[in-house]
Design brief:
Helix content is 42%, strand content 17%. Helix 10 crosses helix 13, helix 10 crosses helix 15 and helix 11 runs antiparallel to helix 12.
């Protein structure tokens, strides 16, 4: 409700075009009769445009036991073609047009993009509408592609940082689908060849126009592009049928787990706190500012742990908003096992300083300015601008949410950050994961890897 009211207040005065705000380009909104939302961003890129088809569908929608990883798997399957255009035909056609193309899947969103000459947009629109409306998925192709997804998972599992990500989710979450990574639990991925009917059902339930957006950024004729969208995407019918996502219950006590890593590596220390999702505008803005303030390269904690005391090689991570409550966390790559205790103590002191309201006003102003400058730096091409908007659009269904959040960031003060820290960054709400050679102490084999929820 908080988010809905904020968006309504922001957009009511100009339903077709967003009012000027921190986001540096105009955002025009349209909609087809079938519910497909269309967003246009005029951008000074003569002859170039980026075209995105975006589904507000991600791994959070994988609620069926034993079927994690299917949102990402379906991203792969969508390139297998239709009766009108095989996957190879699609590849040849887009390359002949001079288009770069790819896709990505996250917790909350799946996006397919092409970037290249604006003159190719009519053909691109026809090809993309065909594959999302008329995917022709054979069982043999399905089984072949499932092995590619398993290979991607195995490659990721060769990194201790992926072990940290898997462990942090498995330990912190008990019910919500955020418990698994976008790639899914290993056992579920190995069992994907048995899920052909589930994949068809996934497509029929979730790849519907009212769960999709089209975003066009660059140099284009808006009316001509909208007419082409109406022609090719307009006949797409159906309503998305989302399964209920069970909310995560509150965490009542600290959680901690240690995982053994077979090869010699520097120890990883990860800590995260359950925090609200995008529905809570105040919390989202606070986290965008608080992460660089606490853990960024200009933070006192970074100076202490990395530069002065040399307890850590780096502080890794970032804050990315999620649709539902997620985790506000950081990862330390420690110099050695002995560095863990003093590093944890330093983090606790830094968090306590924020909770007490002891925030340097100049540092806060610098971080807020940097948050906005980072946005501008990530909008230097139509493609990169589109990616930024895709992530924020996936949270709410409207990419204009980025302006709503940044306006709230501008009004943040030390008291706002202190209130957030006192409410959420508390020991009983914290999960700790240590990954080290031999476990760095009491070793525990990943229990949930390969286990269904």
């Amino acid at each position: 409700m908080i988010l809905a009211l904020a968006l309504a207040a922001s957009l009511a005065a100009a339903p077709a075009q967003a009012a000027p705000g921190p986001f540096p380009y105009p955002l025009h909104r349209r909609q087809l009769a079938n519910g497909l939302r269309v967003f246009f961003v005029p951008y000074d890129s003569p002859g170039l445009a980026a075209f995105f088809t975006v589904f507000t569908v991600g791994s959070r929608d994988e609620v069926e036991p034993g079927r994690s990883g299917f949102a990402h798997f379906f991203e792969h399957l969508s390139y297998r073609g239709t009766k009108a255009h095989s996957g190879d035909d699609w590849e040849r056609a887009t390359k002949s047009l001079g288009m770069d193309s790819n896709a990505f899947t996250d917790d909350d969103v799946t996006a397919y993009w092409l970037y290249g000459p604006s003159a190719a947009l009519p053909t691109v629109i026809a090809l993309e509408a065909d594959r999302f409306r008329n995917l022709d998925l054979g069982e043999d192709d399905f089984k072949v592609e499932s092995r590619a997804v398993l290979g991607e998972l195995m490659k990721s599992q060769a990194s201790p940082d992926f072990e940290v990500e898997e462990a942090s989710r498995e330990v912190a979450f008990t019910r919500h689908p955020y418990r698994h990574t976008t790639l899914g639990f290993e056992r579920d991925v190995r069992d994907m060849p048995s899920g052909y009917q589930h994949a068809l059902d996934f497509y029929r339930r979730l790849y519907r126009p009212d769960a999709a957006m089209v975003l066009v950024v660059g140099d284009f004729d808006e009316e001509a592009v909208f007419d082409a969208l109406a022609q090719h995407y307009g006949p797409w019918q159906g309503k998305a049928q989302r399964a209920k996502v069970e909310p995560e219950p509150p965490q009542r006590e600290p959680k901690e787990v240690r995982r053994a890593w077979a090869a010699p590596v520097l120890p990883r220390l990860w800590q995260g706190w359950h925090t609200p999702g995008a529905e809570d505008l105040d919390a989202t803005a606070a986290q965008l500012v608080l992460w660089p303030l606490l853990f960024g390269p200009s933070s006192p904690l970074h100076r202490e742990l990395v530069l002065e005391r040399r307890l850590a090689e780096e502080i890794a991570g970032e804050f990315q908003p999620r649709r539902d409550p997620f985790l506000f966390g950081y990862e330390l790559v420690l110099e050695n096992a002995a560095a863990e205790a003093p590093a944890r103590a330093a983090v606790e002191r830094a968090v306590a300083e924020v909770a007490a309201g002891r925030v340097d006003p100049r540092a806060l102003a610098d971080v807020k300015a940097n948050v906005r400058a980072s946005l501008v730096m990530q909008t230097d091409t139509p493609y990169r601008t589109g990616v930024w908007l895709v992530y924020y659009g996936g949270l709410t269904g409207d990419p204009g949410y980025v302006d709503v959040v940044l306006r709230r960031v501008e009004r943040l003060g030390p008291d706002d950050l202190a209130a957030f820290a006192r409410r959420w960054l508390v020991p009983e709400n914290r999960t700790t994961v240590v990954v080290a050679t031999g476990g760095g102490g009491r070793a525990e084999k990943p229990a949930a890897r390969g286990g269904a929820r």
